[in-house]
Amino acid sequence: MKELIPVEIIEKKIYLIRGQKVMLSSNLAELYGVEPKVLIQAVKRNLERFPADFMFQLSNQEFVNLKSQIVTSSWGGIRRANPYAFTEQGIAMLSSVLRSKRAIEVNIHIMRAFVKLRELMATRKDLARKLADMEKKYDAQFKVVFDAIRQLVTPPEPKKRKIGFEVRERRARYGTSGRKRPR
Fold first, then answer.
1. Number of structural domains, the chain?
2. 136-155-69 Cα angle (round to 5)
3. In terms of domains, do 92 and 33 share one?
4. Nearest CA-CA partner of 91 in 150, 1, 24
5. Is the pTM of this model over 0.85?
6. Which residues lie closer than 8 Å to 103 by C-beta, 6 or more apart?
7. Where are the alpha helices (DSSP H) in 1-100?
8. I want to staple 50 with a disulfide (CB 3.0 to 4.6 A). Which of 55, 62, 128, 159 is the partner?
9. Mean pLDDT per segment of 10 residues, for the chain of length 183 residues?
10. By residue range, what is the domain housing residue 149?
């Protein structure tokens, strides 16, 4: 069966906000093939299905921080309200609110992406724990090896791009028009 949406695309739309992995209403609407307004209206008609641990609206500061982290122009211009964030449980509940065939298929792919992320996190923690156990077991002669492995396992910090430009000159030739100076 051909994938409706590649898992990698879904994974890039999962953010960590308030200590929870969430997806934004605007991204979910795009995946479901509906307008964000339609998605939110469906949710508001069924608010009893979406308690605070399933869905919350981003604060102004959270939205500003998120926009500064995500360098993209797909925020849809001027917004009247901040987007909503849906936890994994909230996304699962969306399939009962949006009853289209596409919504069901998209939800299955999203749930698989969340499971894959959980497995990756568990593997990384398990590997770090095993490495720490081995480090305690063996003496200092292997410290260099353990440090190198730890660097490989640790995710790289995102590089910040420099703003502006850099001028490169071969050599400054101020005030010299080809004549020699007297000594």
1. 2
2. 145
3. yes
4. 24
5. no
6. 32, 94, 95
7. 7-12, 25-32, 36-45, 60-69, 88-97
8. 55
9. 67 86 90 88 91 91 80 55 90 82 80 80 75 68 68 68 68 60 59
10. 121-153
